[in-house]
Amino acid sequence: VQxxxxxxxxxxxxxxxxxxCAVSGIVRNVAMGWxxxxxxxxxxxxxxxxxxxxxxxxxxSVQGRFIISRDNAENTxxxxxxSLEPEDTAVYYCAANNxxxxxxxxxxxxxxxxxxxxx
Length: 119
Known about the structure:
Layout lengths: L1 E5 L2 E4 L4 E8 L6 E7 L6 E7 L5 E3 L7 E6 L4 E6 L8 E8 L10 E2 L3 E6 L1
Parallel strand pairs: 2-11
Antiparallel strand pairs: 1-3, 3-8, 4-5, 4-9, 5-6, 7-8, 9-10, 9-11
């Protein structure tokens, strides 16, 4: 299983970014998640989607601002981030899990992509 995250960058508060996670070698009923880790903080769950069926889960802090989706043909999972706030600044990771959506215990992890939101 290989996960390749991309799309991070620098954006002003109120702006938007879209992260992408290219996936290979995955089992189709896995959960695909996005996580983030800010400096000095623990890694936290952001959002997740079930590859088959498309059920989703979001952290309260991003509910209504972020949207997770997947493109089966492109084997890619996206995280559309809108109304970004400085508190969203972190390294964002994508991950795959053979278990539940909302957990930190994901089995496979990609490299991180930096998101910086300026005030």
